[in-house]
Design a protein that fits this description.
Helices cover 31% and strands 14% of the residues. By secondary structure, it is α+β, with helices and mostly antiparallel strands. It has one domain: Cytochrome p450. The strands form 5 sheets. A two-stranded antiparallel ribbon has the order 1-4. A hairpin with a 2-residue loop joins strand 2 and strand 3. Helix 1 packs antiparallel against helix 2. The protein binds protoporphyrin IX containing FE. Protoporphyrin IX containing FE (HEM) binds next to helix 4. Keywords: Heme, Iron, Membrane, Metal-binding, Monooxygenase, Oxidoreductase, Transmembrane, Transmembrane helix. Its cofactor is heme. One of its GO terms (molecular function) is iron ion binding. Pathway: Secondary metabolite biosynthesis.
Amino acid sequence: MSLFPDVQRKAQDEISRQVGPDTLPDFDDYDKLVYVQAVVLETMRWLPVAPLAIPHRVTRDDEYRGMLIPEGSTVIPNTWAILRNPEDYPEPERFNPDRFIKDGCLDTSVRSPLTLAFGYGRRTCPGRWLSSASLFMIIASTLHTMDIHPILGPNGEPFDPEKHAFPGIKLNFDKLPCAVTPRSTKAAELIRKYTNN
Ligand code: HEM
């Protein structure tokens, strides 16, 4: 959000319009918060938690597009490349939730990152529904009440998370600097009300 202030503002405008200032979003607001749903999808696409999913061993000979995958082979899915395939996601480097929206609704003809970012086949992540619902709620509640600002580097350039990623089975960062401030006095009251502070 600190890198894409226009996305942040658009999501905040939608939440303000649909939820109003007196309460936090809840799951009854889900269908109305189409742009926030698209932010969740784009978040899972742009920097997937498991860019190479989990390696699997093939238990019997298999064939893919005429190529033999012999029993015992280890298959490592390149989720990162699939989620940045320009044929499915034009300008893939751009964080652009609008790619998932058509005529004010989620565009089901665009491949959902939720079918990719949680692994594949029988061992697909069983936590995917919990995770995507939690992400929706965390993103909606945070953006409704707080502004996320960039912290500029020594040369005045914004922080680029990709430059701070380091390898591992999941995507790791050595730091993710940003500043988070309440959007208004009313928003600060809401935060206190819901966190008992
Ligand atoms: C954004 C959050 C999450 C992401 C991106 C994620 C991603 C993944 C991926 C890529 C796999 C490997 C699937 C495969 O083998 O192809 C996996 C497996 C698994 N995940 Fe998640 N996960 C998330 C959250 C969770 C949560 C919240 C839970 C539990 C409540 C969970 C439980 C599991 C379990 C138990 C497996 C192993 C499944 C098996 O091997 O049969 N995950 N997850």
